[in-house]
From TrEMBL:
PANTHER family: AP-5 COMPLEX SUBUNIT ZETA-1. It holds the Pfam family TPR_AP5Z1_C. It comes from the Eukaryota. The lineage of its organism: Eukaryota, Metazoa, Chordata, Craniata, Vertebrata. Residues 449-795 form the AP-5 complex subunit zeta-1 C-terminal TPR domain. This is Adaptor related protein complex 5 subunit zeta 1. Residues 1-279 form the AP-5 complex subunit zeta-1 N-terminal TPR domain. Residues 320-437 form the AP-5 complex subunit zeta-1 ARM repeats domain. GO terms for cellular component: AP-5 adaptor complex.
Length: 799
């Protein structure tokens, strides 16, 4: 909420009248004509920004004021740059006066001005002249253009490349490829020393050689991992070029495809020949610009990988080595994706890097791009990648689950390759117990990733175990917390809160329970026998924030799981899943509201499964009846119990499954009748609540449906309903505390009783045939709807 003063200013800005606004435009235009713009200009610009941003519609500025503001974006004052660009963003470019991009001086551009130009460019044709001018400014020599011009122009051009790559023509691509080669490979190898003092001699001011990160003198060409007291301009361009090289390589090939067609035809024939010439020739200056850039990029990345083997003297330099390694491997991957013949030259270098780093998990962020390289090119290089996938999918989540940055990059790696991983890495789906550790540790920030990833983990072979694992996710979260505390807290030191769960985690008698939760791969069993014991040991973790947050994500994942498995599973597997739902409905960690949410999800998908496959009710009739015949479920699992009873009454019918016999109907009727009689003939257990009226009415409806299919049962239902009406005449009853609820129950009983007096009508109403529940009247020629539809069609359609 805004303060009272702020709301007053916003109201004044919205209520300003057009004549007053035009006067303000005129005053501001005259003010901006001056050379020295002080506080008055800043205040006026701030007021103009408030006026423009406070209204819902876009105002149009006078052309002269618009031009003055655009010129102000290149002002030496950064405050004026920010204010003028912010004002112009609230307006659209003038319809009758397009910005002349060819008159813009690249040396005067800055971040704010370039961002404004790119955001307000109306089309690609508008940006193309601007790109041409940027390329020409980069093509100039340092003596012809200010040194800071190129360092500002290259990032701007990279932004254009990112958002509108089609603005670059084939000529632009060739020119920039040549410049990138020069900046990457031929930067100076001397460092600039700062001028000395009065007593400094000329010898001390001589340029010295650049150094490596370990302090030794560099003996090769300059790269981003070289250090010195100060960089020259071409060395800064070397650093900038390396930072944009990957984006350039991934984009300019698609640009060439858009603008030319002959080049792609030649590449398919001569790519391997050119690569062989690049590898054997002492000079690559005769190669086309693109091929030459590819060759120099390969050499540059090789040099960066070699430099990373040096021991950095500073911690910041060690982190720089890792970041540059990530970029170098990604660039090599992009090179091989563009020209597959390079794989045979690049793979030995990447394989050697993997062998050097694989034993050190501190390089995990570097190993992920290497894994991407193996995934893209391992098959072509005929390399066994089993060790790589064991490292990535086994050790990373198991040992680095608490590294949030790595978790995001790891999940991004999986999401980017979600289509290829199940095909190229068949063991990927076996690692879901490990992959879910990241979610169990940091649920709020990673749940969106797992919403996309979970369907790829669902297979018919792992569905049952995955369902158990999702239900035990809060237990896994608590176990990971205990694992961390077990490392941090010495065994001899008593915990301040007296954590019994930590003692249990360290107890060898319970070690097997926790090791099952911490398993790395699937296949060791769907679940464990002593779940109730595990839940007792972890009872105190029910209010831990990490566990509570994890429990809140499980219902979302369960919906995704069931929506996915229903597309690939057969009825046998679906029957197993129904059995798991019934068994696990009482075997859940006692996190607040967790059990109710799980029951709600189970109920929804139980109805969905049975509606798609009604024969599941007959297949699992024994387990469903056992669940429905347990009176305690009426009070403890109200949501799920209600839906199980409804499913039995709805689909236990000969019309749904020819295997349904009178014996099935009678046994189900007797089980439900016993429960209904028990809960309506006695008060609830001490400390308990009365049964929900919804449960009672569902039981009565299910009994009436079953009786309508076996008429011998109708007298028993009618007798119960008549007794119910008689007992309620005296007022309140012990099993229903609310009078309105009792009236609703009795009313439903009277309706069912009236239906059962005429069995034929009862069966038609309570178990309607398919043509009633799923009508197709628009296709039935015996009714008037098709004739009416055809008549309307003829009237509305032209002849």
């Amino acid at each position: 909420m805004f303060s009272h003063g702020s709301e007053s200013l916003i109201k004044q800005a919205r209520d300003i009248q057009e004549p007053e606004l035009q006067k303000f435009y005129s005053r501001l235009t005259k003010l901006l004509q001056g050379k020295d713009l002080g506080l008055e200009a800043v205040d006026s610009l701030q007021r103009l920004h408030l006026i423009l941003s406070a209204t819902k519609f876009t105002r149009k500025l006078p052309p002269e004021l618009h031009t003055r503001l655009f010129a102000l974006t290149s002002s030496p004052s950064e405050q004026l740059q920010i204010l003028s660009s912010a004002v112009l963003r609230e307006t659209l470019p003038l319809c009758d006066q397009e910005v002349n991009y060819t008159q813009i001086t690249p040396s005067l551009l800055n971040t704010h001005a370039s961002g404004l130009l790119l955001s307000q460019a109306s089309s690609t044709t508008t940006l193309s002249p601007f790109c041409a001018q940027l390329v020409r400014s980069l093509e100039n020599r340092h003596s012809e253009a200010p040194s800071h011009s190129q360092t500002h122009t290259l990032p701007i051009l990279n932004s254009v490349l990112t958002h509108s790559p089609e603005c670059l023509t084939e000529e632009h691509v060739s020119v920039l490829s040549k410049k990138l080669v020069d900046w990457l490979r031929y930067a100076s190898i001397t460092q600039v020393t700062s001028p000395g003092g009065f007593f400094s001699g000329s010898r001390s001011r001589q340029p010295g050689p650049i150094a490596e990160l370990d302090g030794t003198v560099s003996g090769d060409f300059f790269t981003v991992l070289c250090v010195g007291l100060s960089f020259t301009d071409d060395q800064w361009m070397n650093v900038y070029s390396f930072s944009m090289l990957r984006n350039w390589l991934l984009t300019y090939y698609s640009v060439s495809n858009c603008n030319t067609t002959g080049d792609t035809d030649d590449r398919s024939v001569d790519g391997s020949v050119i690569s062989m010439v690049s590898a054997t020739s002492s000079s690559s200056r005769l190669l086309p610009p693109k091929e030459r850039l590819r060759e120099k990029s390969f050499q540059y990345c090789q040099r960066v990988i070699e430099q990373s083997d040096r021991k950095a003297q500073k911690r910041a330099d060690a982190e720089l080595q890792k970041a540059c390694l990530v970029e170098a491997v990604c660039i090599l991957d992009a090179l091989c994706l563009e020209d597959c013949s390079l794989v045979y030259r690049v793979f030995p270098c990447v394989k050697a890097l993997y062998g050097r780093l694989s034993s050190d998990l501190s390089y995990a962020r570097v190993l992920l791009p290497i894994a991407q390289f193996y995934l893209n090119h391992g098959e072509m290089a005929a390399v066994d990648c089993e060790a790589m996938w064991q490292l990535v999918f086994s050790r990373f989540p198991a040992e680095l689950f608490n590294d949030s940055l790595l978790a995001h990059e790891f999940l991004r790696f999986i999401r980017q390759n979600i289509q290829n991983l199940p095909l190229k890495v068949p063991q990927y789906t076996r690692f879901f117990p490990n992959l879910l550790k990241l979610l169990a540790w940091d649920s709020p920030t990673l749940v969106d990733d797992y919403v996309d990833l979970l369907p790829s983990m669902v297979t018919t072979g792992t569905a049952v175990e995955l369902l158990h694992t999702l239900l035990d996710l809060p237990c896994l979260s608590a176990t990971l917390v205990l694992q961390q505390r077990s490392v941090l807290l010495p065994i001899t030191e008593p915990s301040a809160r007296g954590l019994q769960a930590l003692d249990a985690f360290r107890n060898p008698n319970f070690r097997g329970l926790f090791l099952f939760l911490l398993r790395g791969e699937a296949g060791s069993g769907d679940t464990i026998d002593r779940l109730s014991v595990l839940h007792e040991l972890l009872a105190e973790s029910a209010d831990w924030p990490r566990v509570v947050q994890c429990a809140q994500t499980v219902p979302v994942l369960l919906h995704i799981f069931f929506n996915t498995i229903i597309k690939v599973a057969d009825e046998k597997l679906l029957a197993q899943l129904i059995l798991v739902q019934l068994e696990r409905s009482s075997l859940l960690l006692n996190v607040p509201n967790y059990m109710n949410e799980i029951h709600r999800v189970f109920s929804y998908h139980l109805l969905k499964l049975c509606k798609l496959h009604p024969s599941l009710v007959v297949d699992q009739s024994h387990d469903l009846l056992e669940f429905a015949g347990t009176t305690s479920n009426v009070y403890n699992k109200e949501e799920l119990y209600t839906h199980v009873v409804w499913v039995l009454g709805e689909y236990l019918s000969l019309s749904c499954d020819s295997r349904c016999s009178v014996r099935h109907i009678t046994s189900c009727f007797e089980a439900l009748e016993a429960v209904l009689f028990e809960i309506t003939s006695s008060a609830p257990p001490p400390g308990g609540v009365c049964p929900n009226p919804r449960v009672v009415t569902t039981l009565m409806s299910a009994l009436a449906k079953l009786a309508s299919r076996s008429h011998d049962l109708i007298p028993r239902v009618s007798l119960f309903l008549s007794k119910l009406r008689t007992s309620s005449r005296g007022g309140s009853v012990s099993w229903c505390s609310d009078e309105d609820d009792l009236v609703a129950i009795v009313t439903r009983g009277e309706e069912l009783w009236s239906l059962l007096k005429t069995p034929g009508v009862a069966q038609s109403v309570l178990t309607p045939p398919a043509h009633v529940t799923k009508p197709q009247w628009h296709r039935d020629t015996n009714v008037a709807a098709p004739l009416q539809l055809r008549t309307l069609t003829r009237l509305t359609q032209p002849q």
